[in-house]
Amino acid sequence: MPPPQHQDNSARLLFLILLIWFWLTPDTGPVLISGPSLAATRLQRQRQAHGVLNTTKWGDFSPRQNDDPQGTMSRYLNLTGFREDDGYGWVDFGNFRDRCHEWSRNALSPANPDDWNRPGPAQFPWKNVTGRVHGEWVRRPGTGIQQAASYNLTEIAPGINWQGGHGDWGRNVTGAHGKIAIHLEEYDTTAEYVEEMEDKEDLRSASVVRETAAYVLVQDEADDATAWNMRLHGVHWPRQGAILLTTTSEKFAGIFGLPHLSPGADFFQSSQKLLNVTLDQVLQKRERARFTDPTNPWTSLVEGSEDPWAVTPHCEYIMYLQLYPLDPHDTVLNNYNNHAREGFGGLLDEMEKELRFPSGAPIKRIPDLHMSLVAWSPDCGYFLESKGPPHFPAVDGEHLAGPKEEVYLYQVKTWLLALAAVYIGQIWLLKAQMKETCTPSTIGRVSFYTAGLMLLADGIIFTVALTLSLADSNMFLACLLVTFASFMSMVIGGTFLSDVYRIQEPERRSRERNRGQEGGGSSSAGTAPGTTQSDSLPRPATAEPPRPASPPIIIPSDQDIDAEIAEVAAAAAAVPTPAATGTMTTPRPPQVMTFASITGRFVITGIVIILLSASASSWAAPIRAFYTNTLAFIYLSLWIPQIWRNIQRNSRRAFAWRFMIGQSALRLAPFAYFYLHKNNILFAEPDWRTFCFLVGWLWVQLWILAFQDVLGPRFGIPASWAPEAWDYHPILREDNVEAGGLPIGLVGSFNESAPGSPVLERARSYSAGAADAGEGTRGRERDKDRERKGMHIRSIDCAICREVLEVPVVKAGAADPTGGGVAGVLARRAYMVTPCRHIFHTKCLEGWLRFRLQCPICREELPPL
């Protein structure tokens, strides 16, 4: 009868928890059936906000400022968050607009400071801003201190079930400095408005406007702070490189009031006309599908739309980005400019056309996007400004910079192709190793956890690459190649791991059986298993004296016949007989987990690591760095389980050195890219100190494996730390002749009457006329030196190669001069002695034991290496 399988009760436990949660949750909020009505109410508010946008003009939004003269009339809009009664900190709106003008003047450097929105005749910024920029920011407090508890969210946005509105809001930056990453999106389908003018020579600079959006990640460098992801929508004026973005939520109609936040009247007119058209198209589509699509198309949540019946308040943001014109004196650009037909502006148009529609034009280098940032939170009352000139020196920061989207995708594809090449190298090494590790003896040496850690990493990369290939069409082919390479590595590694698990299964059964016997009670401690009561009677007087205890022999896991016999005997003993019915108990068979259960645990572990790594982007910087470094340290500790198994089994080497060095280098290569390369695809901060520590840690593991291979796996390890195992390289002494400690072939050297054995005692002959006379002289000197130190050199024939094997034997009563040192270990590495007292060359017996764990002479079972 097969042993009972482990039952997984996790599904039942999860169902029970969900049932209790549904039973105990109070029914205080709106039910799900009210979702369509709430969505209709939201759509009605958005349509009303669109009407306000369409009917207002420049100057209708002029909130009160701290420096306004007495009697100045203030004006507000009938939009959520733009009303005076809402209590937002619009007193800093003038400061925000002045900061925008200052940022534009610093970037464009106009001849007339009043013409802050007019680039010079030789200044041309990128017209398409699709790309990724990152940099550092500093926080500047606003004029008035805003507290979350001072807002009445029920009056600001009635009909919304606010969750935690009186506590700290999300996205509330409290640190003095941090980092920011912005992913700007502006594609061919993006709406664009071009204002038609009567005088073509006097076009306003803001007459061309495009719709744009951005994903923003704000990282607060405070120790207890976290990072926030948000999505902003806005417009881009390409002629002067100005971008205005805002968040939109239930308590802030940012996208509908965006034209009133623009830095000038001409900016207002063009953006109002663009948004009137684009917002109306979106609302018409939502009105046709309001019962099936109740989401907010302009939500600031990255993960999706806000839930209308459970909304969490966040700090709102208004961001102004100013692009820096490209340097016409750049060496590469100047070289192209000399061949451009329409000057530097025409060159940039040709480069952008080549990026968007590649034709194979030879472009050596694409300049990065470079822009400054000023962000303002009207409800939380503070400013975030990019770090750079003129308020900070260039060594402290260069505002925000990063590659255009096409360049970034090229970098990602290049990295993915390099990763695929790394996996192809890992597959080649693994296939070569599997050819060498193909017998039960060699597979038994491999650590299951070392091979499993490699397989787990391959499975994680496979899952991530497969997800990216399905999510992003731009990287489909590159991700597909990585997916295929990692899948092949995972399949081959899984096959190898399955063989390791199958070969080592008897060893695990024996270990579980021993644990069960140790915890079985003290009643059977004095009687060995399988013995009867008659075995404990006194022995007859004529009986021969009992044989001394033989050295312990470790039966290999793949040849544990006794374990199988014991299991059969236990199963037979479990069958009750008529005489013993009611008195015998059924022994419990050892519980061994199946390989399918192990595979399930690997899958769950990989999913947990992927989810934690995905959420780590919003963690605090110290916690995220600790998590990343810890994960890298655990992954690069892949040889520690193999070192431990070598000690436990007293085996020297399970993998070839080509495999160990190659796998170490290939698996370290991706970490080298992110830890050392500044402009990596994840915009991770280089950390060469941590990388050097990881390299040193991996190097130490390889050195330990090398010491185990040369000096033995238990060299320097106390005997009590490891289980008993046969020592194939013992110290041979003449005192052990009577005790049976010397090999059979060497006994005849001391006892001439001993029966014949495969030994040939030869006296060294160093003749003067030999070709190697110098070597003969040195050999005689070494022998004399060893004789003085109390050692004999005996010669014996190796039964495998039939060559002479010279063995050092310590004289009776003398101490081994090199017994406990490295020299003695290296001297004993020349021979190997089996438990059946036969001696062979080390290389000969190691090669034999790779295929059969039997003595070549007497066919006695041998313990594994």
TrEMBL record:
Catalytic component of the DSC E3 ubiquitin ligase complex which is required for the srbA transcriptional activator proteolytic cleavage to release the soluble transcription factor from the membrane in low oxygen or sterol conditions. Required for growth during hypoxia and triazole drug susceptibility, as well as for virulence in a murine model of invasive pulmonary aspergillosis (IPA). The keyword Signal applies. Residues 507-554, 765-788 are annotated as: Disordered. Its main location: membrane. It catalyses: S-ubiquitinyl-[E2 ubiquitin-conjugating enzyme]-L-cysteine + [acceptor protein]-L-lysine = [E2 ubiquitin-conjugating enzyme]-L-cysteine + N(6)-ubiquitinyl-[acceptor protein]-L-lysine. Residues 1-30 form the signal peptide. GO terms for molecular function: ubiquitin protein ligase activity; zinc ion binding. This is DSC E3 ubiquitin ligase complex subunit A. Residues 524-542 have a biased composition (Low complexity). Residues 798-859 form the RING-type domain. Residues 507-516, 775-788 have a biased composition (Basic and acidic residues). It holds the Pfam family zf-rbx1. It comes from the Eukaryota. The lineage of its organism: Eukaryota, Fungi, Dikarya, Ascomycota, Pezizomycotina. It comes from Echria macrotheca. Its EC number is 2.3.2.27. Keywords: Membrane, Metal-binding, Signal, Transferase, Transmembrane, Transmembrane helix, Ubl conjugation pathway, Zinc, Zinc-finger. Residues 543-554 have a biased composition (Pro residues). GO terms for cellular component: Dsc E3 ubiquitin ligase complex; endomembrane system. It is found in: Endomembrane system.
